[in-house]
Write a structure and sequence with these properties.
Pfam families: TENA_THI-4 (PF03070). By secondary structure, the chain is mainly alpha-helical. It has helices at residues 14-21, 23-30, 33-39, 45-76, 83-108, 119-131, 138-158, 168-178, 180-202, 214-237. The chain is built from ten helices and no strands. Bound molecules: 5-(aminomethyl)-2-methylpyrimidin-4-amine (NSP).
């Protein structure tokens, strides 16, 4: 708690505070024009195919990142927290996700073996590699993990809300991240991140080696995730100045 909270009065957990504080960029990442174009049915299919190929590359890099978070959870040594089970379930879903990308690519005629990473994909994957380093705190890595998944969950769930005109052939993609089960998984990740942030902020984990500035590092990491996500969507639309949309 922040010391200002009153008994019985709900208070914001750290991730709520961040989302409110950085609302503009959060909205930029979760309500990007690419997502809005899927939702209103005007999406350029060449942009969707570009996103598909680039996201396949991203997801392959995301797997070792999640594995590195699993290692950090294990090293924390708190078996009763259930963190490892949540992270393991995420790794299982990523296995399905990779199979889905392959299937979807063949449906859309995208040859994944011929897709080269664009600069925003390379930059984002490099960022994931930085976060995999053993010296990166579990709290920081969890904050990134939650933010990465939450952006997709909120974005694609928006394409399934009532009134959306998402084309039928894209609904399965939206379901993948926009379904309720994925929403619950993201809440579990968020709870882990908030619990860690609370522990670090209150200094209640003297036996765990956490750096004093882990909370501010986690906030900066959260912001960087949002920026990378916006760049990734821009690239998909062809509005990043690196990749012109195919005619
Ligand atoms: C760029 C990006 N960000 C998030 C996700 C969700 N795993 C994803 N597949 N790709």
């Amino acid at each position: 708690m922040d010391g200002k909270s009153k008994p019985g009065v709900p208070y914001d957990v750290m991730t709520d505070t961040w989302v409110k504080k950085h609302r503009l960029i959060y909205i930029g990442a979760t309500r990007h024009p690419f997502i809005l174009s899927i939702r209103d049915g005007t999406v350029d299919l060449s942009a969707f195919k570009r996103w598909l190929g680039q996201d396949y590359i991203f997801v392959r890099a995301f797997v070792p990142f999640v594995a590195s978070v699993l290692i950090k959870a294990y090293k924390k040594g708190d078996e009763s927290s259930g963190d490892m089970e949540v992270i393991l379930s995420g790794l299982g879903s990523l296995n399905d996700e990779i199979a889905w990308f392959k299937q979807e690519a063949s449906k859309w005629g995208v040859d994944l073996s011929q897709v080269a990473p664009e600069k925003p994909t390379q930059d984002y994957c490099r960022f994931l590699e930085e976060l995999m380093r053993p010296e990166v705190d579990y709290t920081v890595a969890m904050a990134a993990f939650w933010a990465i998944e939450a952006v997709y969950q909120e974005s694609f769930a928006h394409c399934l809300e009532e009134g959306s005109k998402t084309p039928t052939e894209l609904q399965e993609a939206c379901q993948r991240w926009g379904n309720d089960g994925f929403g619950r998984y993201c809440s579990s990740l968020r709870n882990i991140a908030d619990r860690q942030l609370e522990k670090v902020a209150s200094g209640s984990v003297p036996l765990v080696k956490v750096s004093e500035d882990a909370v501010s590092k986690a906030e900066v990491t959260f912001l960087r995730v949002l920026e990378y996500e916006v760049d990734f969507w821009n690239m998909s639309c062809g509005t990043d100045g690196h990749s012109a949309p195919k005619p």
